Each structure stands twice: as structure tokens, then as C-alpha cells.
Amino acid sequence: MSEITQTLIAKDGLTLFTRARPIAQPKAVIAFIHGFGEHSGRYAHVANFFNKNGYSFYSLDNRGHGRSEGKRGHAPGYTSYLDDIEVFLEFIASQTNSAPVFLYGHSMGGNLVMNYVLRRKPMLKGLIVSGPWIQLAFEPKPIMIALGKMMRSIYPGFSQDSGLVQEHISKDPAVVEAYKNDPLVHGLITASAGMGAREAAELLNKYTGEMPVPTLMMHAADDKLTSQPASEAFAQRVSGPVTYKKWEGMYHEIHNEPQQLEVLNYILGWMERSA
């Protein structure tokens, strides 16, 4: 299916960029939220896979990312991201005659969709998260955290380099090289966005309640960016219909590893069983 690009207007007036690959009479719709510093254009192969297997695929460039407006890596507050997801889901409902929706987030996108589901209780068919930022696999420099805390109240748009090691996204050198050369990829995060996401991650790391929708959580065993043990602990700690899958021998972007087809087929099987 050919890609359709459209823009949405966020609740605060910012223009948000979306990509859609709809198919006729889909089994369900996947609404995808990408990770920090990247953009929806990196998921064309994922969209194509699910299209071929009967699912429409919609994706959003988060504010301050990709082709969406906003200072790179910035949000005035964490709730801005959640509001943007709400606008995105409302748009999808208007385009798909309210077809069943699986909300899918990767990395920081995983942090966002988990918080969205827990805080806003949307009507969803299910939730899919990969490599979610519940806890980082590395400890940021103390000066970076101190600056973020201080500058959030003085100058929320203060930017720092995230410290993300690009070689840790995938074990496939071609993926890493494409990431490094992608003009829409960036490594900046502002004080308000960074501290807001960090606090939201801490809430997930302490959460002990119920997941209100069927949830598939996946994490790479060798992830050096976000913590696999934190994801596994979350899945064991909460109640509700949660499936956890640890992928051995992979780095952070399990959908971009040499074994990506195995990963995508696993997601497909889980969605089919949830239908």
C-alpha cells in the first residue's frame, strides 16, 4: 500500500506529521509511536509487513521530531506528548470508521504509550511495547541531570545531547550507518522534555497496579540503552493480561535486527490471538 502523509493540529496549535498505510477491510489498525530522536519514516518495513498480513498502519512523528513542528527534542510538558497521542488516535478513528486499534510504542514511545494507557484509559484492542524506557540501561552524567532539573524552571527549552550511543541501536552495521546519516534523526533533548520523560519512567518503574488492556511487552536481552530487567520486573509485578518476551542476542531496535522477521511474526501471532 502506498503511503499517505497528512498533518494534524495539536491541542496547543503545533503541526504534527503523520504517515498512513491503510488497507481495505483491515483486521485492525496499528497506531505507532516512535522513540527518542528518530521518526516514523524509519518504520516503512514494519508498516509493509503488517499491511501484507491484514493490518492498517498509522504512525506519528512526535513533536520536536521528524517532520513535526517544534524545537528538536522539546515538549513544554510531558502531558503534551499524551495530548498528541490523543489527537492522533482521534484522527485514526475518523479515518477508519472506529476499527479496533493496537497502540504500539518503541523505546521512549513505549514510555509514552504505557503512560497514556494507564492515565487516560483509552478503548484499545491491545498495547504493544518494545524496549520501553522504564529505566535506562546506562546512568546519564550527574551534571546532565542536575542541569535538567535546574533549567526546567528557568529555561525549559534548554537543550543537551542525550548521550545516546548510536552503535547500540542495532547489531546490523547498515542500520547504524543509515541512522547516522539520516537528516531527520537528532540527539537533542530539552530540560522539560527530558525531566518529564524521566519522571514518567520512574512512575512506571514503581507501578504495581493493573494493565487495563491486553499488553505485549518485548525487550532485547543485550539492550544497552533501556533496561531489559526493568521491563521484565514490570511485567512480573503488574496484574492483568500481560505477555512478556525477552529476545536473546539483540540490541535495542529488535525490529531492525537480522532476526527482525521473527520479531514481527511474534507480534503478528500475539495480535491474531488477541483478535
TrEMBL record:
Which top-rank group of organisms is this from?
Bacteria
Which reaction is the catalytic activity of this chain? Hydrolyzes glycerol monoesters of long-chain fatty acids
Report the residue ranges that make up the Serine aminopeptidase S33 domain in this protein: 25-259
User: Which Gene Ontology molecular-function terms are recorded?
Assistant: monoacylglycerol lipase activity
Q: What is its EC number?
A: 3.1.1.23
Keyword tags: Hydrolase
Query: What is the name of the protein in this document?
Result: Monoacylglycerol lipase
Origin species = Runella slithyformis (strain ATCC 29530 / DSM 19594 / LMG 11500 / NCIMB 11436 / LSU 4)
